[in-house]
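Sequence in, structure out. Go.
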Amino acid sequence: MAEKLIFAAPKGRILKELLPILEQADIIPENDFFDDASRKLRFSTSQSDIDLIRVRSFDVATFIAFGAADLGVVGKDVLLECGYEDLYTPIDLGIGKCRLSVAEPATQAKTDDITHWSHIRIATKYPNITKQFFAQRNIQAECIKLNGAMELAPTLGLCSRIVDLVSTGSTLKANNLEEIEVIADISSYLAINRTSLKTKSSRLKDIIKLIEEACS
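Output:
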């Protein structure tokens, strides 16, 4: 029996948008996958040669890049932040759409001018993207790494600006923050390990085609 393919799926909102695509591609997880009480981390699917794992969004890229998973779904934000060269991303799935933006207190945004910045302290989950973005504008960005509750940073005096994902902007508004600059538009991609694509080429190309058709 051939070795199973491992498909890494991100937890949370993107997973909910991904499931209809997988269903259309006839990659349907076993019932335990939908059981919140289940402690399993690896699940069989309707495809006998594909198992599904469910992990954090940043971990999906790591599992694929280092060959622990053959393919999965990764947001453009994670792709840009991690910069893994071993990921092949043939399809923009058109899900998980949002934007990566700079935000600051609304009162400050009224008079602030980004062209006058030279050095800033900024809270973000994306220090690599943030530093690169501001370096292109000759601005030195001192990044404070946070993994959540980013909107609290300006409120509690940790720093006055953040870089974070923005969808509707309602969370920013609720915390008296305003989006002042968009760094990148974000969506999620099918990502494949390049070595797997060589060694398991035929099957992976079949899956790419199924998922591409499911997205069309």
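Check: The radius of gyration is 19 Å. The longest strand covers residues 177-186.
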